[in-house]
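User: For my dataset I need records formatted as: sequence, then structure tokens, nothing else. Please produce one.
Assistant:
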Amino acid sequence: MEKSSQIYGIRAIMEAVRANTEIDKVFLQKGLKGDLMRELEQLLRKNDITLAYVPVEKLNRLTKDNHQGAVANVSPIRFHTLEQLMELVEKKTSPALILLLDQLSDVRNFGAIIRTAACTGVDGIVIQRKGAAPVTADTIKTSAGAAFTVPIVKVGHLKDAVFFMQASGIQVVAATEKAEKTVYDIPLTAPTAIIMGAEDRGISPSMLKAADHLAKLPLLGNIGSLNVSVACGVLLYEAVRQRS
């Protein structure tokens, strides 16, 4: 992690949070006590910032400087709110096309998806605040800079975003091998949000249940699945084909 994308020290992190700095995650030294540490913990929770308790050795690997038991990873981009994304969508004349990434954890897959999203006219990408791949230098590089142009939204619970979109007239399509229909059987000309799942677990059962449609990709060889960024590209370009 580049030093420029970190903040270390309890007071420095607190000031960054109060200044609305876009912080991805904060690592706190396990077992460290004190009034200032408790104040930082409360501030992080109040602002819904992901935190993790780790051994001091982990913090020492993150930075050689005096971290005081706290290191924050700062995002290189500024995230949008769901409301801001929906305002952008409402101003468009073409139907919405949105991606929801359910617990995707690989930063390079994330970057590749962002790049494809930019090439296929995706209006925005929605990820969950906790457990999702962070936007790192690797993400930016793999996205070929598209992470600076495609709006990315962080939400507390992805299922709430699904319900919000459905209430806004956007159909939700979940990409899963458990589907009976292929993506070629699903109409994608209407305003659409596509859910892509994690590399290892796929889409969570509750998200599958909430979706309006389930869609799979035909697999003709001996391999049982596609890389998630490749699968995402296929689905997005099918949407582009149907809308052309």
